[in-house]
């Protein structure tokens, strides 16, 4: 274990994401594209306590789960508060590190914080608008159709469609979010100008 810890610390110091650990010989030593095997293990810096960074962030949007996450929110739009503008600024989309039970629990807990304006389906639900309306509706199905809440500051031009949440959430809880590293985002504006 000590040798592995030292190797991971060295990899992190060299700005690597982590280590791949595998069998040296035998059937498990060969890489099989697209297949997971217990003989190949990923060891990342954020798997260790005391390595990486953590931030206190607030969920302000939620994305409906897909696949095994259907029926709950599968990811959240996280934000930090900008004291200068007195508004919340998105910082990242968070969808990993949750157990299935946590996702169900958080979905239930967030129900009371859904911004009711984001549930407005606008004019897209009326039907009868022809093929163009149907194509436009398909392109944005499930996205928050209301404009962002006034307490949320988005980059000029808004968020790209793949980052628009299905619902906006009133800021109400603070989560400690761990990350292997932090970097400035070309999409999210929180931290812009901080060098």
From TrEMBL:
Residues 1-82 form the ATP-dependent DNA ligase family profile domain. GO terms for molecular function: ATP binding; DNA ligase (ATP) activity. It holds the Pfam family DNA_ligase_A_M. One of its GO terms (biological process) is DNA recombination. GO terms for cellular component: mitochondrion; nucleus. Keywords: Ligase. InterPro entries: ATP-dep_DNA_ligase, DNA_ligase_ATP-dep_C, DNA_ligase_ATP-dep_cent, NA-bd_OB-fold. It comes from the Eukaryota. SUPFAM superfamilies: DNA ligase/mRNA capping enzyme, catalytic domain, Nucleic acid-binding proteins. Belongs to the ATP-dependent DNA ligase family. This is ATP-dependent DNA ligase family profile domain-containing protein. It comes from Coccolithus braarudii.
């Amino acid at each position: 274990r000590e040798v592995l810890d030292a190797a991971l610390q060295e990899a992190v110091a060299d700005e690597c994401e982590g280590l791949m650990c595998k069998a040296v010989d035998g059937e498990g030593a060969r890489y099989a594209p697209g297949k997971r095997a217990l003989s190949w293990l990923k060891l990342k810096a954020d798997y260790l306590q005391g390595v990486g960074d953590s931030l206190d962030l607030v969920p302000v949007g939620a994305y409906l789960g897909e696949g095994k996450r259907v029926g709950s929110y599968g990811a959240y739009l996280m934000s930090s508060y900008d004291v200068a503008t007195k508004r919340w600024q998105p910082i990242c989309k968070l969808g990993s590190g949750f157990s299935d039970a946590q996702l169900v629990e958080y979905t239930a807990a967030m129900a009371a914080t859904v911004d009711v304006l984001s549930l407005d389906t606008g004019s897209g639900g009326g039907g009868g608008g022809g093929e163009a309306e149907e194509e436009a509706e398909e392109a944005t199905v499930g996205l928050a159709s209301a404009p962002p809440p006034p307490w949320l500051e988005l980059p000029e031009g808004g968020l790209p469609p793949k980052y628009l949440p299905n619902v906006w959430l009133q800021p109400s809880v603070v989560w400690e979010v761990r990350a292997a590293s932090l970097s400035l985002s070309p999409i999210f504006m929180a931290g812009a100008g901080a060098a």
